[in-house]
Amino acid sequence: MNLSEHITLEQFTRSQSATRAHIEEQFTPPDNLIEAGKALCENVIEKLILLFPDLFISSGYRCVRTNALIGGSATSQHCKMEAADLTTSKGNIKITQAVISANIPFDQIIIEGGTMEKPAWIHVSYSRLANRGMILRADFSTGKAVYSNLTKEQILKIK
Fold first, then answer.
1. For tag attachment on the chain, is the N or C end more exposed, with fewer CB atoms within 10 Å?
2. CB 120 within 8 Å of CB 92
3. How many domains does the chain fold into?
4. Which DSSP string corresponds to 121-152?
């Protein structure tokens, strides 16, 4: 099943952690979440694939058990099929800059791990109800995520 032209349900639900832990529900999300996944893929990820053909979804949907296993937030949008963690060989900060420059709608972008210039991955979410346009930085240097708010202007200045 495809969630959009280039994204399959299999790509969006893959999880090595769930496979190792035999969490079968990870790979068959409830039907009521599929539409949210389609909305994220069609409205955000497909547009990014045009700019970054090697765009990789390192984490898409997470069932509640998988999310708990990896220590995800209890309120994670991954559990609603509204979020994905993305990487590209072009430089992950470029994903955030592209979303802003192309006016791609989003609920949250979280620049996670690494440095501001070279984050480990980019979390992007999309809501069919209301998109807040929040940009955050998640710093893990203390061993726990510390979040700070960012502006579009700050992101676009990064080289």
1. C
2. yes
3. 1
4. EEEEE--SS----EEEEEE-TTSS-EEEE--H
From 52, 45, 116, select the one nearest 90 (Cα to Cα): 52
Tell the residue number behind the tokens 């990014």, with chain if given: 48
Q: What angle is formed at CA 76 by the lines to CA 22 and CA 142, rounded to 5 degrees?
A: 95
The end-to-end CA distance of the chain, in Å, is: 38
Confidence check: pLDDT of 131 > 90 = yes
Q: Give pLDDT tens digits for 77-126.
A: 999 999 999 999 999 999 999 999 999 999 999 999 999 999 999 999 99
Domain of residue 38, CATH code? 3.30.1380.10
